[in-house]
Amino acid sequence: MSIRAVNGIKKMKSVTSAKKAATPAMPAPSSVLIIGAGFAGLGAAIRLQQQGINDVVILERAADVGGTWRDNSYPGAACDIPSNLYSYSFAQNPEWSRGFSGSREILAYIHHLVNGFGLEPLIRFGTNVTGITFDEDAGIWTASTGSGESHRAQAVIMASGPLSNASFPDMPGIDTFEGHKIHSAKWDHDYDFRGKRVAVIGTGASGVQIIPELVKQAQFVKVFQRTPGWVLPRPDYRSPEWQKTLFRRVPAAQTALRKVLFYGHESMALGIIWHSPLTALVERVSRAHLRHQVKDGWMRRQLTPDFRIGCKRVLMSSDYYPALQKDNCKLVTWPIATLSPKGIRSAEGIEHQVDCIVFATGFDVCKSGTPFPVTGIGGRQLDKEWSRGSQAYKSINVTGYPNLYFTFGPNSGPGHNSALVYMESQIDYAVQGIRLLLDQNLKSLDVKPEVQQRHNEEMQKRLARTNWNSGCKSWYLTEDGYNATMYPGFATQYAKQMQHFELKDYRVVEA
Amino acid sequence: MASIDLDKMLEKIKNSQWALADIDWEAPGVELITPEQWPELKAFMADLMWIEHIGARGFAAMAKKAPNDTLKQIYTYFHAEEQRHANAEMALMKRWGMLDGDEMPRPNPNLLFAIEWLDRYSDDMPLEALGTVIPMLEIALDGALCKFLLDTVHDPVCHLVFEKINDDESRHLGVGFHVMELQGHGNVYRNILKMLATMIDPRLLLGVAAYFPLLNRMRDNIVRMGLKEESLYDAMEKFRKIGGRTAQGRRNPWYQFISRHGLWVMNRRNRLYHVPVDAAVRASDYIPAALLPSTPSWVNEITWRPEA
Question: Do the chains contact at B17 and A296, CB–CB below 8 Å?
């Protein structure tokens, strides 16, 4: 794989950061600490380097890079955004083998980012951050880690990922099940499904990818569905050799395709984010897809969603419905009563006996907390401030926590376009802020509370008019129905919002 | 009737789940079924099982219409629970040697029409209509039939099963009457007009054409089994009394219509009602099998096996 580096930001001279005098016992603080070596963390490191900020440390809890794509290696794992858009514009890959690449190829792309941009020396693997604290006097963040060692830096980029923690759901009887349990985000590659009876709980984005693959391997698969989602066909294809050659030789052609894909997805926002005539059209396409693939009326009924499209994540699959109709597969829509030693008892009174249960039940998304304690000015705790739902300024900064940048912070989630497009905007914004901090030898940049409040009032007002807030239950919303997850607009609007770092919105403390 | 906290009810439902595997289907007691009662009991159980099964489909349609997520979840559970009752009743039939291998008992023509109607149209019916008919069917047929069964069958496993079924049914009725009362809210004239508009919907008229003969056939079958007709009428009267206990319940025009219909059914001398409906029951027996509706795939969900 060869990745073409495109310098979107003009390379600047290396910054010898204006470090504060450190206490003799403590190592000198770095300029930037990045927490997480997934797409966001690595992308941030690349953009910082391209800006001449080389004094960067990346803390990664695992032994490898890749984040979500390292963890989600279940059979069939793939991206549901075209690969040419689900990649960095500043590191395009002409070699994508498919329209929608699988997790292995995406992980390989991430590895090539590390190798291509020489990021490996920056990464401290096996370093699990247990908390970060801001020293207001020194203008320094300290990250404590599981091993007891600490890392200090002037700025921190939180790139720990919104979908990085997964655990078995809290279901009655889960501990009594005597068979094998597998979580989609922690796949057990040593388990042989051949000849096994398997239950899959969950029919969301992971479930619809796993099920077709399991049906090919297992003796019998029972799919336990709680709520059917809207499914659109995924127009996957094998990339022809001429296309790869063209993209290698004429990079502008790939950039042009990326633009076409970008605006194509942008147009989907009209149907998916807001309730418009296009919403009915997209629903019609999804229903036609269902009708085309499922002939039995009752099964179609069980697979027809009863919420507005867009309210929950739209699923992309062309092989999910056919898999459900295979002779060795059965869709179970009865509510699960309890798990038992031999399988799953559903409310129609039957015990579905299985050898293995696959939990495609998603992630523990932090909508009202933080992955570890974050202590800001005056000892304020971010999880307490976010206990009723998180909020930030432009999704990236939180007042009282200076020089701290979130990737995929509150209200930054895309519902219709590539997450990486949003990620690039966040990274470039953070880089602008950090540049200012270092160039102007500032101690801290802290967003003003009134600015953050105004921004969030506007966000929530706009969110109230979106399909996400139209009444269904989804992981986008807190139990109280507060949407701290999604960005209510086009990706273009988000990028525009993140284009300029407005110094007037920040409380500036000089060193 | 006291108002119900639906959230607490949902929790209670979740905590009251049972499975066929909880019952020892090989326990002694089979011998208590007498050879005399066996053939009639077989026909009776088949009807009962099918009534539960179509009741289940009614709840599935109601789940689609529920005004909030809690009620939707409750109806989803009730759908499954009615299916569980049908499964348990089929398991009793298996225990009593009433099934030919794995063969499912064939539904009578009136049941087939009801199944056909539910499959085609029930999802399009307003919650008010289903929300009143289903409690009526539950209290009248389910209630009366179950009581009769427990009076005449002495197999302890049968009693154990119906103890569990009756526990579930009491929750179904509690929610059913609560929802009927809620639907008595609002302007009476507007509710009546809405009902009249629904009643001239040809799809509903087809449903009526399936429902009336089904009720009369069940009455005939029960009487043939030895059940006193009065106990069926007592159950219908119970529906009328509980449903009309509050002013709000009485303001629900669907309650008024369904309970009035109950009075027609009870009054054997109402020839205007019974002559054509009984004729429809008799006529349905002469419909060639090829012309009877085929069963939809949800019918195949029924099973006597505790494990799958």
Answer: no
